Amino acid sequence: MVIFDGDKKVFKLDTDNTSYVLGITDEGYLGNIYYGKKISSTDVMYAMRTNEAPFTPAKLPGGKVDFMDRFPSEYPFSGTGDFRNTCISIRDSAGQEGLELLYKSHNIYAEKRKLDGMPSARGEGSMSLDIVMSDEAVGAEVVLTYTVYEECDVITRSVAVKNVSEKAFYITKALSACLNLETDISDILSLHGSWARERHIQRSKINYGSYVTESLRGEPGHQDHPFIAVLSEDCNENHGSIYAMNLVYSGNFTASVQKDQFGRVRTSIGINPDRFSWKLEGGEEFQVPEVIMQYSYTGTGGMTRNFHDFFRSHLLPPKWVEAERPVLINNWEATYFDFDDDKLVQIAEEASKLGIEMLVMDDGWFGHRNADNSSLGDWYVNEEKIKGGLKNLVDRVNSLGMKFGIWFEPEMISPDSELYKNHPEWALSFADREAGLCRTQYMLDFSRHEVVDYIYGKLHEILSSANIEYVKWDMNRPIAEAASLSLPADRQGEVLHRHVLALYEMQERLVNDFPDILLENCSGGGARFDAGMLYYSPQIWCSDNADPIERLMVQEGTHLIYPLSTTGTHVADCPNHINGRVTPFNTRADVALTGTFGYELDVTKISGEERSQIPAQIEKYKKYRKLIQTGDYYRLASFRENGRHDSYMVVSKDKKHAVIIYVQVVTDSNVISKKLKLCGLDSEKIYIIEGKEYAGNVLMNVGYIMKPLKGDFQSAVIEANSLDD
Ligand code: DGJ
Description:
Layout: E1 2-5, E2 10-14, E3 18-24, E4 30-37, H1 64-70, E5 88-91, E6 102-110, E7 127-135, E8 140-149, E9 154-163, E10 169-181, E11 185-194, E12 197-205, E13 209-214, E14 227-232, E15 242-247, E16 253-259, E17 265-271, E18 278-280, E19 285-287, E20 291-296, H2 299-315, H3 318-321, E21 328-330, H4 332-335, H5 341-354, E22 358-361, H6 389-399, E23 403-408, E24 412-413, H7 418-422, E25 442-443, H8 449-464, E26 470-473, H9 495-513, E27 518-521, H10 531-534, E28 539-541, H11 548-559, E29 567-568, E30 570-572, H12 585-592, E31 598-600, H13 608-630, E32 632-637, H14 639-642, E33 645-651, E34 657-664, E35 674-676, E36 686-689, E37 692-695, H15 696-701, E38 704-706, E39 714-722
Parallel strand pairs: 21-22, 21-31, 22-23, 23-26, 26-27, 27-28, 28-29, 30-31
Antiparallel strand pairs: 1-2, 2-3, 3-4, 5-10, 6-7, 7-8, 8-9, 9-19, 9-20, 10-17, 10-18, 11-12, 11-14, 13-16, 14-15, 15-20, 16-17, 24-25, 32-33, 33-34, 34-39, 35-38, 36-37, 36-39
């Protein structure tokens, strides 16, 4: 619900449990008054304190800059006195950077407009508000768009910047949203890591000054994540306040938390202004990415479940939200580059007997690629390896009753490739310096449309040549030397954003041209696991590290925001190829249950004992697949916090079924069993666990007794089903 109280000049955006309130001052400044538990009245302008000196530039014109420095600006602008972190900066034709955005008009309407060229949440059942802010001196109009999703307690926000003058200007910063909070928050939650250990949760204190998490890698990266939350000190899994923002964008971002001189907190998120500028000609418009924002007073768990519901109902490709995904086997860790058609068919033969449903041919099938130093860009089949061609291989795999999937890395070009020989100018590079290599490859210049068309054409040819039912779209280096030989000097700051837009355009074309292909994104594991990519692909490879113990932390951080069904999870070989850890086969499978589930090992080479466990593992996955894909996720214990064990559960929406996963990482001697307080059950229902009856309220208050398991790295999967099933 969106309400505008014209007398009080107050906007109130209500979800089922929250209110977000903005007010317009007499001068036309737009301020953030309140965000929190739902309130019933618009009579809250008093909280903006426009009667406190120097809060009234209309009455105290001598104090205008002081006002700007204190005002809780809804979309803070740079250069005119707001000395805190701002959201927008424009350099005009005279080279000046200073804005003063004043309210001009607004519009309230049902549902929402699709963002031009960018992924954004779908608007079914929602209501939107556009507020037009204007700076007549610069000739800029800024449209702030809010869409309210009542049931999910989510508000999305985006911004369009328009040049309504006749002269070009340069946008040097345009973030997606900002919150000015004056409430009991004291902590920051953000996600960090590295290759093979992405998205570990970090909780830190808000101090005076600024905290920034960001990426300059041309993608979100393994290291940081386009998400920021601020929370109350007492906020835990089940209660306490949390304000969260998740950016629907797959490039450079910045997210900051700033405590100002009065102890108030400003938090903002958007495209990183470092290495960004955008020339906007008169009459043109620039679209800023969308942010998904929410407030929850039911702790981090409440926030998580809101995000999961929201992603499932409004952002993931609808066709795949509830569709069963095939159990796949990927040959990367099985063979790396050393494979041919016969080797793949041998793996497929064995896999099909065990119940695996799809073979994915990973890197190394094209050009003359036998290592990671050649052929990217040469998207034609290497017939020395795949004898008889791709269709022949796919047909052989299909004849075993298995689907076939294929790997691409479309954004890259190897110096050792036909494509580079013919088009060295298609690689991103500075005009006067040799570009740096990473994994012996360059980035293609996607700001050139002919490059995007050429590469897409090659993908299209391959995908049309055989019965391919899955694509893994990889990206294995960050973007340095973000310069295009085809753009003028004053547009070089656009290269990184243009790359992201071209990536979106290609993925849009791919999913439209091949609607039945299951697309899985990937970037050296999980460096581009974000809401933007999830708009096109319902699943993303979560991390190159499939060690189940590392995965406990990677998956905990990933599932803090994203539904379980979006995380690519595989059972891999042991000792783990990345960290050498040896874990039971059973534990590897149990940890992979809460994701898309597949295998990444040579099924012809593992021990007979392990091989014999695969059919039962697949059966277990299939038994819980629907529940895990559609249910509510609750975290019961965190190995990251306690250093000993991890546990989480998923409860069906009707609360009749639940599955609990428990991993004992470290065994302790002479200890009593653990009490696990279950969550999300119906307190009135009776549940059966391992043949014994318990009331829901007993399981949630007294708890379930989890017997110690024998040894390190052990796991158990327990189900609870209500008697009235
Ligand atoms: C990185 C991916 O994360 C791996 O799964 C694999 O596809 C390699 N790239 C192939 O180069």
